[in-house]
Amino acid sequence: MSFLTFLAKMGVYSFPIILIGVPLYAHLKGVPVYETFIKGAEEGLRVALDTLPYLVAIFVGISCFRGSGALELVSKAFGFLLKPLGLPVDVIPLVVIRPISGSGALALTGDILRTYGPDSSMGLLASILQGATDTSFFVVTVYFGAAGIKKTRHALGACLFGDLCGFITAFLIWRAMVR
Amino acid sequence: MNAVWLVLVGLGCAVALLTGNVDEMMASVLEGADSAIELVIGLAGLFCLWVGIEKLAEESGLIKAMARATRPVLGVLFPELRGKSKPLGTISATIVSNLLGLSSATPLGTKAMREIKDALKDEDDRMNAMIRLVVLSAAGLCFFPSSVVALRAATGSAAPAIVAGPTVLAGLAATCGGLSVHWLFSRRRRSK
Are A112 and A157 within one domain? Predict the structure, then answer.
């Protein structure tokens, strides 16, 4: 457990350490700290703005898919297909949404944890699935959008296959845990 | 992306027309476009902060040092970028941010994408390196899944951190799975 708390602390404490450490080191190296930061921030703003058209496109696509009820239909179809494998029906929407919408998935995981309890077998599975991967659609859109690249080849396919591998591993570990 | 977007919009509209869900769909689409703007405004501050810090790291030589320190690993993962310390350094900073679960992962990752684009002339090399970075980031391998653990703690879990080990293993599987698919596709493209 202490190793886990160490890892948790490392994530939290690295933020202030980087925030003060990098400028201090740059200052010692004779870099004009304020001017350089501003230069970088300007570039950061441009990068963020460059991603806007890409984000609008993908958000429109996703919300069209979601608002029309198509997402629900797909979840149901997946549920039908995956039921024989022993995957609980209630986590299937989570598996479908996880690569598409980060905030949607987090809200769904929250619902499952509140309904079943975080330490129930369903709560455990939802937690592991939630943490298994990041939001592939978002990452592909923002990363390629920032670079101004519209043809992304097999990037999304590779990410989604990665998600699938993550989910299968999560499911197998969960089965070993609750048994 | 072309096909994906068409499927999302086409299937969405088709289902809306068939089920009479048109009003809801329309409201959701407009809301989606709005929330993209909101997201970008939210991200802009984060991007300014982290790219600003990264610039300091770059000019003080920290990024170069990171590129040197991570060469044994990144040299294998990104053979196209051999000797190009600027993108390699930013990539290593991105990966470290991801592993620590820091908010700097996306700002640094997007900057690394731009640097890869500038550093490589050959279209295939460039795309291969970029897709590899995207796959690594999308798998989101992290030492400690802090948002899930916080959510578990908030909903009254007796052992919120018990899922940390399993999520790391699942994240590893996602990383390896994504990278192998990319490897297969890039090989097939080359043999054509």
Answer: yes
